[in-house]
Amino acid sequence: MLIHYNQTSDILYYEILDIPLPELQGLKTLKVAFHHSTKDEVSVHSIRLPKQSTVGDVINELKTKVELSNPNADIRLLEVFYHKIYKIFPLNEKIENINDQYWTLRAEEVPEEEKNIGPQDRLIHVYHFTKDASQNHMVQNFGEPFFLALREGETLADVKERIKMKLHVPDEEFCKWNFAFISLGRPEYLQDTDIVYTRFQRRDVYGAWEQYLGLEHSDSAPKKSHQANHNRHTFEKPVKIYN
């Protein structure tokens, strides 16, 4: 009889390995969700490399498995948790200590507008949110977070137009959205004439993910776990899983 967590069982489970165990113990497998820049879908890939490999090695391996907008496209690897971006992995970071059990590892092409960001421009976080009436109207994030290159002097009206084009949101839906500067969970609603750039001068936050441009609208996607709920704005993206 087998004992597991104080429970007895007469069932023994085993796994057939595709490579010798000593070799497997020297490898690290990461599950990476690649978000296509031109297609509205996500492909999930298992990347298996030696533990001493770097994020750059992961990206190079991923490039052999995915369809890019052009062969020279730059890819970045992000750490996403509960619909917030917590980290952009440096290319030289070792993969041995990267945890993909609790965090989602998301890979994506770097947009051209972010490559050409000027010295006075800012790369801000943009998250979708609703306010939960049952929890004292606390901000609840959902959907896919993203970055936006913010130009000095841009009004909210300018930023809204770029976001609408980026997310391909129909006019009749987009007109219902509200926009807010959110710092530490507190929304400050913006008007079309507000200069968004000035809101992102604050330094009194723990991390960049706690200060973001919030897009308030209804979450019409099916309710799933935070790891499975990947959508572009309110709709589910098709997910393809590769081994």
List the helices and strands and how they pair.
Blueprint (H helix, E strand, L loop, with lengths): L1 E3 L2 E3 L11 H5 L1 E9 L6 E9 L4 H9 L11 E7 L2 E5 L15 E6 L2 H4 L6 E11 L5 E13 L5 H12 L3 H4 L3 E6 L2 E4 L21 E6 L22 E4 L1
Parallel strand pairs: 3-7, 4-13, 8-12
Antiparallel strand pairs: 1-2, 3-4, 5-6, 5-7, 8-9, 10-11, 10-12
Largest sheet: 6 strands, mixed
Rg over C-alpha atoms, rounded to the nearest angstrom: 21 Å
Number of strands: 13
Mean of residue pLDDT? 84
Which shape, going by the Cα principal axes?
Answer: globular
| H/E element order | EEHEEHEEEHEEHHEEEE
Low-pLDDT ranges: 224-236
Q: What is the percent of helical residues?
A: 10-25%
Helices and strands: which structural class? mainly beta
Biggest sheet strand order reads: 6-5-7-3-4-13
How far do the termini sit from each other? 34 Å
Counting DSSP H or I runs of 4 or more residues, the number of helices is: 5
Proportion of residues in β-strands: 35-45%
Overall description:
The protein is mostly beta strands and 243 residues long. The chain has five helices and 13 strands. Strand 3 and strand 4 (42-50) form a beta hairpin.
Describe this protein with a few key phrases.
243 residues; mainly beta; 5 helices; 13 strands
Report a brief summary of the structure.
By secondary structure, the protein is mainly beta. It contains five helices and 13 strands. The protein is globular and about 65 Å long.
